Amino acid sequence: MRKIIIANWKMNLTPNQSADLVVEFKKKLGKENNNEVVICPSFTALSIVAEKIKKSNIILGSQNVSWMAKGAFTGEESISSIKELGCKYAIVGHSERRQNLGETDEMINKKISICLEKGITPIFCIGETLQEKQEGTSDHKLYTQIKEGLKKIDLLPHENLVVAYEPIWAISAVRAVTPHDVEPEEAEKVFKFIYQNLVDLWPLTIVNNNVRIIYGGSVDENNSKDFGQIEMINGFLVGGASLDADKFSQITKNI
Ligand code: PEP
Fold it and tell me: What's the confidence (pLDDT) of residue 33?
């Protein structure tokens, strides 16, 4: 499977700023890129970014999606809408939504189900807090997030999943307050643990062919070289550094 590098622009740019950034990034990325590159702008910028990436190999993703197909859900966005705008991926269960907006494992499970059912590949985010890491409960947290998030989901041969391991303490916004670095070797151990949990759920061929486990947490144009050396890491989810076209294009080349 090709490696995947995903930009999560969060709520940082207006639609016009998103259009400018994607145009700049498209020029820097060029055509010779073997990896899959996905841009996830905010909902209001999806249309304009979709327009700008036509005839390029950049793929569109959303930062969230509703678990309901349609109806009285003020402020939510449906799978049909994001699909109509050209999204192929949707980020599901980002730690900022889990922590600040009350998103639960149950909601995330429903979102993953509807994504798969409707042909959108979920980017399923998991990760422990600094406190959980220090208390030695990281494995339990990841195990629970995987077990509950993927409950009753049978990944079929035509379906794909991206699992993004993002230790919350390593995400740039959190790291700015409590600086801790993830060593690539440490990340590799966690990747093996996540892989094993997926193998316990699904046939090996499905896990090997249809699931990519990627890393997120302050990935930049420098540390992506070391993380990129780790065979089990199938790509990156990038926040802060994806807002800079030079840095993000360099990251796409470092793996
Ligand atoms: C994220 O929040 O998904 C993320 C990886 O952010 P950053 O790269 O800024 O740490």
Answer: 77
Contact 194, 142 (CB under 8 A): yes
Q: Could you identify the residue written with the tokens 């035509």?
A: 158
CB 3 within 8 A of CB 36: yes
Nearest to 209 by CA among 153, 149, 157: 157
User: What pLDDT is stored for residue 182 in this prediction?
Assistant: 81
- How much distance in Å is there from the Cα of 218 to the middle of ligand 1? 6
The fold for domain 4-253 equals TIM Barrel (3.20.20)
Ligand 1: nearest atom to the Cα of 218: 10
What residues does each domain of the chain span?
4-253
Tell me what the mean pLDDT of segment 36-53 comes to. 98
Residues contacting ligand 1 via CB (< 6 Å): 8, 166, 171-172, 216-219, 237-241
Which residue has a Cα nearest atom 1 of ligand 1? 239
| Catalytic residue numbers, as ranges | 94, 166
What type of residue sits at position 216?
G
Contact 7, 24 (CB under 8 A): no
Q: Give distance in angstroms: CA of 220 to centre of ligand 1.
A: 10
Of 2-11, 28-37, 161-170, 241-250, the poorest mean pLDDT is in 28-37
Cα 240 to middle of ligand 1, angstroms: 6
Residue 179's contacts (CB-CB under 8 Å, 6 or more residues apart) are none
